[in-house]
């Protein structure tokens, strides 16, 4: 018996078939199983239930399939995926050992080249890998990161004396969360005509002056605090972001305006897209490797595009915004007094105030 590519229609039969005729339910189940197994093998990181639902949408309205048939198909899909890759390791040591053995297998190569590299000693693995692949030593001078103490500590432990640059967006969100967490501050902040609200928004401009200017600018803001409610926020700022030995000193988050975006949004966008490739919080290690290989293919395309035809790293809107910031800072420097400072903080703060996302 010969069927079409979609296995839904019999094209030709050969020989005699004396066995009992299959039921409609059995035939429909077999068609669904084969189609789902094929797609499960082609796209190993697509949720099986999604594949099944898509196939069910294409089935006949008078289908005889039942829930047990669907459960059997799902099991067949998982069994098919298990046949694609080696046995799943049960521990970290076993995972490392297995990946070391499989690094030269074709299914784990990227365009015929080795893709998996495992550490062989206790030396700095990233640096050794960079030397091996690029014949250059890995040198990282700055590290863009958000405001998580654990992340800062990990960076310091691994890379030593390195300059940490805080993400301005996350800085604004941290300050905004503090404001909305206090009822008196939240009400004032949401009212554009409220003097306390205007004063709170000026704090967001502190990230756009040099670290050396932050303390003096902070004192100027304190001197014009509209009421005692404002000290709730100013105390939070000075204890966590300004005073000596605080968690996040000004040299991490303050810098004069420039075309440097000072944000981790691009990295977070990548991680969000990467995480969306998996339907389980603990995916199969071989599935992870496969997704990384496919991601590398996309990354290589982008690198080649930039190499042959460099494009704009920022949108025209963002470039214009940065130019306005630079212009405003230049005007402040020309006068450099208390009045010009407060005007500058008000202008910049209103552009970069924290918002709900």
UniProtKB/TrEMBL annotation:
This is Uncharacterized protein LOC112687568. The gene is LOC112694384.
């Amino acid at each position: 018996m010969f069927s079409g590519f979609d296995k839904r229609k019999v094209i030709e039969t050969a020989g005699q078939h004396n066995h009992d005729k299959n039921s409609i339910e059995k035939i429909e189940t077999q068609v669904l199983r084969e189609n789902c197994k094929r797609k499960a093998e082609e796209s190993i990181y697509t949720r099986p239930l999604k594949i099944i639902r898509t196939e069910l949408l294409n089935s006949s309205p008078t289908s005889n399939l039942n829930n047990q048939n669907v459960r059997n198909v799902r099991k067949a899909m998982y069994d098919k995926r298990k046949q694609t890759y080696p046995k799943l390791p049960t521990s970290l040591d076993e995972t490392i050992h297995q990946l070391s053995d499989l690094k030269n297998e074709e299914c784990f190569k990227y365009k015929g080249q080795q893709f998996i590299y495992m550490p062989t000693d206790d030396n700095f693995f990233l640096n050794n890998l960079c030397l091996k692949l690029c014949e250059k030593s890995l040198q990282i001078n700055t590290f863009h990161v958000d405001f998580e103490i654990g992340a800062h500590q990990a960076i310091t432990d691994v890379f030593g004396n390195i300059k940490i640059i805080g993400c301005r967006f996350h800085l604004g969100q941290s300050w905004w969360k503090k404001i909305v967490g206090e009822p008196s501050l939240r009400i004032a902040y949401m009212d554009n005509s409220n003097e306390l609200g205007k004063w709170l928004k000026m704090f967001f401009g502190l990230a756009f002056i040099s670290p050396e200017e932050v303390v003096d600018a902070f004192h100027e803001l304190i001197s014009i605090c509209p009421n005692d409610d404002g000290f709730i926020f100013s105390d939070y700022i000075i204890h966590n972001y300004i005073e000596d030995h605080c968690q996040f000193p000004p040299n991490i988050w303050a810098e004069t305006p420039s075309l440097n975006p000072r944000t981790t949004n691009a990295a977070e966008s990548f991680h969000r897209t990467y995480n969306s490739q998996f339907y389980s919080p603990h995916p199969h290690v071989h599935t992870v490797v496969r997704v990384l290989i496919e991601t590398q293919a996309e990354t290589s395309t982008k690198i080649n595009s930039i190499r042959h035809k460099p494009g704009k790293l920022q949108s025209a809107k963002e470039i214009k915004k940065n130019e306005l910031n630079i212009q405003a800072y230049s005007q402040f420097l020309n006068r450099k007094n208390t009045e010009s400072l407060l005007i500058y903080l008000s202008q910049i703060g209103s552009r970069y105030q924290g918002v709900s996302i």
